[in-house]
Structure formats: C-alpha cells, structure tokens
Amino acid sequence: MDRCPETHVPPRAPEAPQNQRAGASGSCAGSGGPVVRVIGLRKTYPGVRPLEVLHGLDFTVEAGEFVAIVGQSGSGKSTLLNLIGALDRPTAGQVIIEGRDLSTMGDNDLAALRNCCIGFVFQFHHLLEDFTCLENALMPISIGRGEPEPEDVLRVTKMLRRVGLGERLGQLPRRLSGGERQRTAIVRALSNSPRLVLADEPTGNLDSRTSREVFSLMREMNRETKAAFLLITHDDRLAAQADRILRIADGYLTEEQPTGETS
Ligand SMILES: Nc1ncnc2c1ncn2[C@@H]1O[C@H](COP(=O)(O)OP(=O)(O)OP(=O)(O)O)[C@@H](O)[C@H]1O
Ligand SMILES: [Mg+2]
C-alpha cells in the first residue's frame, strides 16, 4: 500500500522564505543546454600566503551524465563542488547552472536555485536528528514550498521504499544504520527532482560493501531520473563505473576514460 501514515508528515517543517516558494525565480524547468557549464574558473583562498587552488577550469556536464571527480587529498575537489553548488563564490570565472550565471545572482536567488535545481549528498549525512527518515527526505520540499502535498509524500515514500527503507519511514536518524542514513540522504537529494546532484565522498564513511550498494543506488537513480550527477570519490573502482572521470591535479582538470570495471 502506497498511502503514507499521516504521522509521517513533517509536523514542524521550517518556514519557507517568501522568495523560495513555488513560482519564484529558483524554479528549475531545464534550459535545454548543458546542466553545468564552467568557464575559466579560479579560486584563491585569502591569507598571509593566498592559495590559488583552481587555476582556470573549463568543462560542461550534460543532462543525465554521471561524472566522477577524482584527485589527491587537497587537490581542490570539494572547492570545485562548492562553487558549482553555489555554496561559495569563485575568485574569477563563471559557473552556469541550467543557463543561469551564478555570478549575476543574489543570495536569495542562489538559495532558491540550490533548493530547486540541486541535490546535495555529503560524506556525513547531515540528517536532522529530530526528524524521521521520511521527514528528512521531504525536507527540500518543506523548505522550498512549505508543507508537502500528499502527492509529494507519496512520491518520496515510494522512493524510500525503492531504496529499501519502506520499514524505516518513521525512524529517527540515530536509529538508522550508516548505510540507511546515507540512502535517506540520497533520496533527500533527489526528492525535489533536481537537474543536478552534487555528491562529496558520499561513500567515504561506509564499509566497502555498503559503499558499493550506495554507489549502485546513485547510478540507478541517475538513470531513472536523468539528473546529472557529479560525484567526488577516492575509490578508483567506483570512478571506473562513471560515464566520465574528471581528475584535478595541480589546479587543473584532465579528462580520463572510465574502464567500466566493477571489481
Ligand atoms: N576555507 C578555506 N580557506 C583556506 N584554505 C582552504 C579552505 N578550504 C580549503 N582550503 C585549502 O584548499 C585546498 C583544497 O581543499 P579541498 O577541500 O577542495 O580539497 P579536496 O580535494 O576536497 O581534499 P579531500 O580529498 O581531502 O577532501 C587545500 O589545500 C585546503 O587546505
Ligand atoms: Mg574534499
């Protein structure tokens, strides 16, 4: 039965800012062009000795592509993902998401864009401890539009069932296993039907078997939803199964051919 018990509906979702409600400038209908376009992207962290981490990157990501970002620790992978996700501003260059140049947008429009167009998955799940599995998964909808509609609850419940969490809908995060929390975080990232999912080492905290399962799940969701995925990983075996591999080294980006190996 797909009907979700009413007790699972978020009772105290945070109030959505006026400019993030449905119909605001953050709506993400799809531009028809690349989902991500990065042009001459540079990032320097200020300090006594300023550190230029990214020296000018150029690449695009098309709808439905699953792209692995690899590179040594400290090479700038998270820096790049944070710039694409509008969590940080570049020193120079442009990030264009669904045809919208982030450098021309104010903080409110960026927040709305993040909510509607982009799903985030991090190494640490960042689930809200006082909210159930289902409430957490619905959170982008609750924040963006206020109380979720019954069809949202139904759709997200189906997604949670799809990833094996049908029996865990009303469970608080502390009662979920690491893999279950991360699966919840993946559904949360996809619950608003984003065009782009940014995942920063989402399997970095999991054992190798759970890590493979979570990766397969993201790959399946990528094929089903046609959302573009940008995934940072230190695991070469996982990167080998991506459509494309982008390697960051010495502040520059090179493209590598995935081998497709699964073991
Ligand atoms: N807010 C910051 N201020 C100053 N330097 C920073 C800041 N964030 C990151 N750095 C530096 O920028 C470089 C790139 O960091 P980043 O977190 O992007 O690396 P990474 O490739 O994600 O590494 P890891 O694989 O360890 O997560 C590092 O040398 C880091 O110390
Ligand atoms: Mg990192």
What are the salient characteristics of this protein?
263 residues, alpha/beta, Rossmann fold, 6-stranded mixed β-sheet, 4-stranded antiparallel β-sheet, 8 helices, disordered N terminus, binds adenosine-5'-triphosphate, binds magnesium ion
CATH domain class name: Alpha Beta
Tell me about the largest β-sheet.
6 strands, mixed
Order of strands in the sheet with the most strands? Answer: 6-7-8-3-9-10
Strand count: 10
From the helix content, strand content and strand pairing, which structural class follows?
alpha/beta
What this model shows, in words?
The protein has eight helices and ten strands. It is α/β, with parallel strands linked by helices and 263 residues long. It has one domain: 3-Layer(aba) Sandwich (Rossmann fold). The strands form two sheets. The protein has a six-stranded mixed sheet, sandwiched between helices. A hairpin with a 2-residue loop joins strand 9 and strand 10. Helix 6 packs parallel to helix 7. The longest helix has 18 residues. The N terminus is likely disordered. The site of magnesium ion has 3 residues, from helix 1.
Secondary-structure blueprint:
Layout: E1 36-45, E2 51-61, E3 66-70, H1 77-84, E4 92-97, E5 100-101, H2 107-117, E6 118-121, H3 133-137, H4 139-145, H5 150-162, H6 178-190, E7 196-200, H7 208-225, E8 228-232, H8 236-239, E9 244-249, E10 252-256
Parallel strand pairs: 3-8, 3-9, 6-7, 7-8
Antiparallel strand pairs: 1-2, 1-4, 4-5, 9-10
Helix pairs in contact: 6-7
Bound molecules: adenosine-5'-triphosphate (ATP) and magnesium ion.
Residues 77-78, 200 line the site of magnesium ion.
